[in-house]
Task: inverse folding
């Protein structure tokens, strides 16, 4: 079994997958859509990836505000969580993703990725950071 990490944005969904041992996260793709409200193809692609990678659990980034409140983006993520659970039958864990996009952008800057190219990869890297944080948490919880 593997775990899938998702960074749900207004027009993209960054996707990451754990290794079979649930130690590391790898970015695999960015699902793009033309309209924020059109999720059918996005959900279908996620289902394909679930089958391909034998996913048993999903971690979805939860974009809380810095003051710990839930804003519009977080509400949309909760709605997406419900759709994912209904459509896939898998548990979807919400994971605090505050500052993951900033961290992803900073990581690419430090790696020398040009500004124009960073937008192309930021969602995939954010998904990796979300999933990797969850994997660290889960490993620590199992070792207690």
Result:
């Amino acid at each position: 079994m593997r775990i899938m990490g998702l960074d749900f944005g207004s027009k993209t969904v960054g996707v990451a997958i754990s290794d079979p041992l649930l130690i590391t996260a790898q970015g695999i793709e960015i699902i793009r859509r033309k309209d924020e409200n059109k999720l059918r193809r996005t959900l279908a692609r996620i289902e394909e990836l679930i089958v391909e990678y034998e996913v048993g659990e999903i971690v979805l980034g939860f974009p809380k505000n810095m003051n710990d409140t839930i804003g519009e983006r977080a509400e949309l993520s909760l709605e997406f969580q419900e759709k994912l659970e209904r459509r896939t039958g898998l548990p979807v864990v919400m994971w605090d993703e505050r500052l993951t996009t900033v961290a992803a952008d900073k990581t690419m800057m430090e790696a020398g990725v040009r500004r124009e190219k960073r937008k192309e990869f930021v969602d995939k890297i954010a998904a990796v950071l979300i999933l990797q944080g969850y994997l660290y948490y889960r490993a620590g919880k199992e070792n207690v």
Summary: The chain has a mean pLDDT of 88. The first strand starts at residue 2 and ends at 8. The chain has one domain: 2-142. The first helix runs from residue 40 to 53.
